[in-house]
């Protein structure tokens, strides 16, 4: 369970690239999330340093966490039992705690941005609108966008706050990369962090056939520009979804492949490594500085949020993942069957935020 919670925390930080919090909307009608949780209306569920954490934000993250854990357990052939666990914490408790930490972090983003002296500018508003239109286009139009939001019980207002938090995160990160800023992450800071975490970057190439992999390796060793040849060949034939991986931040590689990657120095080509039905070639690379910088930034941002004083309110205590998640998935299944239209009108109105990490003004939950 601890490993899954760590992965939930990591995924939440990645999602800062495109997700955020929502207002509590106490005077609005209950939406899909509140109905699934048994709440009569949107409300505040907790406070972080006096900043309200709304039910919409918290329940969105609880739903995401429950979905992640259910998928992980099912993939392992294990039964999902929200009221069972270990070390005095049930699976449901762990999902609730992780959702609270994430929602608190997002609730504090405006405060952290203000403390950093970052003001909302016309360029920020323009970026939000541009990202929203890009998301609508990617989904296939306004109707698809509306269905996308409805599936998670989100309104346009919820989605706009989502996008604004994403933008604030991007602005804070950019400030950490600006030399002269009080939050500047120096090359020395990044190097020390990378060494402590054991971060290492490698390029990846994977094919289904080991003989093909051996032939590619022979071809690559004859190249006068190995990095360029490796990148070109990976782009042409590799079945692996990414071209590089930074070990210590990404645990997607099979264990044998990860161990082979750790043994490489920059510019060194591995032997063929076969694992999970694929044959891999790896090329040692210089550390991905940007990936390391973002991980360090996320660590510091999380540390700031974890210092906040959290006050739980009565609605938080009443939320039970064991009833909430089945009700949520049933409601989503009904929406899917009906073509994505919600019977209950979503509370509020406004724009949305994406879980894509590209672009500082991204706009809609996945």
Total helix count?
Answer: 14
Indicate the overall shape: globular
pLDDT averaged residue by residue: 86
Order of helices and strands: HHEEHEEHHHHHEHHEHEEHEHH
Strand content: 5-15%
Low-pLDDT runs: 1-7, 9-27, 341-364
Strand order of the largest sheet: 6-5-8-7
- Tell me the helix content: 40-55%
Structural class: alpha+beta
Number of strands: 9
Most strands sheet? 4 strands, antiparallel
Description of the molecule:
Strand 3 (85-86) and strand 4 (89-90) form a beta hairpin. Mean pLDDT is 86; it is low at 1-7, 9-27 and 341-364. Strands 6-5-8-7 form a four-stranded antiparallel beta sheet, sandwiched between helices. The longest helix has 25 residues, at 91-115. By secondary structure, the chain is α+β, with helices and mostly antiparallel strands. It has 14 helices and nine strands. The radius of gyration is 22 Å and the shape is globular. Helices cover 54% and strands 11% of the residues. It has helices at residues 2-15, 32-37, 55-75, 91-115, 122-139, 142-150, 156-176, 187-197, 210-221, 226-237, 255-262, 289-306, 314-318, 321-337, and strands at residues 44-48, 51-54, 85-86, 89-90, 200-207, 244-247, 273-275, 278-285, 310-312.
Helix and strand layout, with pairings?
Blueprint: H1 2-15, H2 32-37, E1 44-48, E2 51-54, H3 55-75, E3 85-86, E4 89-90, H4 91-115, H5 122-139, H6 142-150, H7 156-176, H8 187-197, E5 200-207, H9 210-221, H10 226-237, E6 244-247, H11 255-262, E7 273-275, E8 278-285, H12 289-306, E9 310-312, H13 314-318, H14 321-337
Antiparallel strand pairs: 1-2, 1-9, 3-4, 5-6, 5-8, 7-8
Helix pairs in contact: 1-4, 3-4, 3-14, 4-7, 4-12, 5-6, 5-7, 8-12
